[in-house]
Give the backbone structure.
Amino acid sequence: MRDGAIQNALENTLKSTSFSSLGEKYEGKVRDTYKTAHGTRVLVTTDRISAFDRVLGTIPFKGQVLTKLAGWWFEKTKSVVPNHLVRVVDPNALECIDCKPLLVEMVVRAYITGSTSTSIWTHYQRGERTFCGHRLPDGLRKNQKLPGPILTPATKAPKGEHDVSGSREEILATRQVSADDFDRGAELVMKLFEAGQRICAERGLILVDTKYELGKTKNGDILVIDEIHTPDSSRFWMQSSYDERFEAEREPEAFDKDFVRNWYTDRGYRGDGEPPKMPDALRIGAAERYISACERITGEPFVPNEEEPITRLTKNLAPLSSGASSRGEKK
C-alpha cells in the first residue's frame, strides 16, 4: 500500500507555499518559514530536495518524514540541548519559538566520507591533511571512522550559492557570528551529536555526520532550530553491514540523500550549472529510503497523510493566522 501511495503522490508533492495571513515568508531550500502575529514561527517543510546547494526537485512525502523526525528528535533530546519546538501543527509544519538564526552551520563529522566538492573526503583525496583547522592522519580510507568527532563549521550562504567550510578562526573572521555565540553553539552541538550517535546505535544505525542550525532568542538563549538528525541533515549507515562493506571497499548501506547525490555525481554533476531532471524512479527510491530511515529511528510505522497538502495546511494553520483568510498556492 505504501508503494502505491508513493507512486500516487508523484504528481501531488508540496512544492511551495504562500500563506500571506501567517506573516512574512522566508523561503529556504526546503522550508518555508513564517513569522506569525502571535510571536512564533511556523516552519512548513516542503517536499523539495536540495543537494550541492541546489534544489533538484521534489520527493513524495519527504516533508512529512522530515517533520515527523524533527518533532521526534526535538522531544527526545530536549533534556540534552534546548530547542525551538513548540508543537507539531500539521504533518508538514511545526510551530516554533521565534529565534534569530546564527549565520553559521555547525557540521559535525565522525567519518571521512562524501562526494561533493566541499566534502572532507574530496579534500583528503587531493592530498590535503588539514580540514577546517583539524589535522588528519595519513592513511585514511574513504568511509573510515575518524579518531573522534570533529566540528567543521560552514558559512551560511544565500540560497543558490555554496556554503564555505572553515576553521573557527576563519568563520569568526567573517564577522557573521560572535566568538561567544560560536563557542556556546559548538558546545551544544557536540553534546547533541553524542546523544544522536547513542540513540542511533540503539537502532542499528551509525550517525556518520550531520549539520545543526542554531538560533538566539530575544532573551539571548541559544537554541537548536530547523531540524536535527533527519535524512536531509545527516548521513546514516547500517551498522550491521558497515565493517564488511568497508573491508570490501564497498559503499555503506545508506538511509539518507546520498542516494540522490550519488545519482547526480555518477552523471558528472556536482553543483555547477543546471542540474539534470530527476526521473520518477529516483524520486520513488529516495522516498522509500526516507521512509525507511524514519521507521527505523522512531520505531513506528510511517503512515502518510494523502490529503491534498495545501488544502490541509490551510485548515490546520488557520488558528495561527493574523485574522485574514489563509491562502495557499501550489505551483
Observations:
- The first helix runs from residue 2 to 9.
- Residues 324-331 have pLDDT under 50 and may be disordered.
- The chain is about 30% helix and 25% strand.
